Structure formats: C-alpha cells, structure tokens
Amino acid sequence: MSEDIILRLENVKKYFRLHANILKSLLKKYKEIKAVDDISIDLKRGETLALIGESGSGKTTIGKLIMKLINPTSGSIIFENENINDFNKEKTAEYRRNVQMIFQDPYASMNPRFKIKDVLKEPLYIHNIDGDEKTYDDIVINALKDVKINPPEEFMERYPHMISGGQRQRIATARALILNPKLVVADEPVSMIDLSTRAEILYMMKELQTDKNLSYIYITHDLSTARYFADTIAVMYLGSIVEIGDADEIIDNPKHPYTKALIAAVPDASSGRVNIIKELPIKGEIPNASDIPLGCRFHTRCIYAKDECRNYIPKLNNISERHSVSCILTE
Hints:
Number of domains: 1
Shape: globular
Order of helices and strands: EHEEHEEHEHHHHEHEHEEHHEE
C-alpha cells in the first residue's frame, strides 16, 4: 500500500442478523441487514473523503467500522499498512489514539455533570498520557485555543449546558484532537448547529487539518458542505458505493441517477425556490436493507431503469482518472 494512503477499506462487508423466532433459529433461517456490502475505498494523508447518502445508506456503519466500535463481517480495514482486524488489546488502544471521532450530537456525547475541562481531560486519563494535573490543564488550554474558544481558562469551568451549540461542537472537536490523532471520523459534525455557524466550524476544521496534517472521513447528507469541505465524495446507496470521485467533478458532472437526485434536492438560493421531494428524478421509497432488490439496487426507484437493470449488478467503472460510477448507463 502506498505511503500516501493512510486508510484503505478492501471489500468490507457488515451484515446484521435480524432476530428470529425460536423455530427459525432452530432451522438456522435468518434474515440479514446488509448495512455495508463490499465497500473498497482509499483515503490519502491530509485529505478529506465525504460519505454521502440518505439515512440507512450505511455511512455511519462505515464510521463505526473504522473506529473499531464494531467488527466487519468480512473484508479488511488497513490503517498505515496494518489490518486493524488483527489488532490485540494494546494495538487497539494505540489505534484509538490515532483515530478519533466527532459525534453528531455534541451535547449527547458529553457527560452533563462534567465541566469542560473534565470533558477534555477524560481522553488523557483513559490513554494514560504522561503528566500531572498542571500538565493536563495546559494541554486543555492549548486544545481550546486551537478551536478558537477564548478565554480558555473561563470556559474550562463551565458545564456543557452553559455554552452554545456552536461552542459545544468546538469542544467536541477539541476533545477529538487532544490526543493528536492522524485520522478523524466526523459524523454529521455540523448538522446540530444553526446555518450561520456551520461555515465557521468547517473553516476551523480545515485550518486544523492543514496545521496538524489530519485526514478526515466526513459523514454527511449535505452535498453543499461536502463540496466545500471534501476532496473526494463517495455516494452511498443501500450499503454500496454508486459513485465516487473528485468533489467538484461529482457535483458538476454527476453520472449516477441517484447522485443527480441528491443534487436536485439541494436548495437553489439563486432562484428563490427550494426543490421538494415530488420534483426529484426519483420515485418510491428506499428498500429495506434486509430485502435488497436483485440486480442494480437503485432500479426500483430509477426513472431510467431498463429491463436488464433488474438482473445485472453493475460494478464501479472508471469514466475518468478521478471518477467512477456503478450504472449500466455509463458502461
């Protein structure tokens, strides 16, 4: 694996077994939810990969797999040329220092009884970082300065409910970065804050990326922020990647019908109108992940679907050096 690649997913699958009744359990007849189904992606050092898709597409499951919160059903997750599935307890602890997560809801991910300084010190205690309380206080102050929380000494003594949503998200970012990780998984990091603050938070995260040579996995349903924040966009549908490529190329020249539908759903401020679901070039509801359609997964909702789409499973094909699509229309 190239030294430029910090993370690689190779044919990763994650299936969840549905609960069965006693008879089906005895007969070993189970249904499985194919949350992630044969995903292969690369992430370069210092770059951002955005995972885009509707709820239920498998984005957050990939984040949990990368964080080693759950184990894959099959496939490999390679971090700096090592398969994380093979890690023992000590290697896993080291891995989790290098790979941190920013959660969607900063308030829910913080202990409301902890002061901000305790929220930020907790990872230092867990990972036995060398230093006394004075050293920890200095680390916390520097972390707060990194995320533009000033004056840091004042905020250290506050509780999560005493600060704004945008400030909580900055604290959540500081907590993820306090161990100096190499990779950050950001799961909808700005979805819980108001629009006026989102750009500030993303700009801050890009500055920190440059300063600390961070790599990001950015999980979102928001194509507008993905274009601004990401270098590469991977569009997911029912646990599979249907289109991946350079962020600008995906937005300006989408090829998969699903990607086109997602872009059509983005509000058009210049025209003074907002697209609504009825106007999208898409039909029906997303199928259940335990009953994925045969052939192309998207054919049940695609207005361009042909008869062969019901039986033929398209593979990701390169249509340019930095753009791949899984659709019979591009083959």
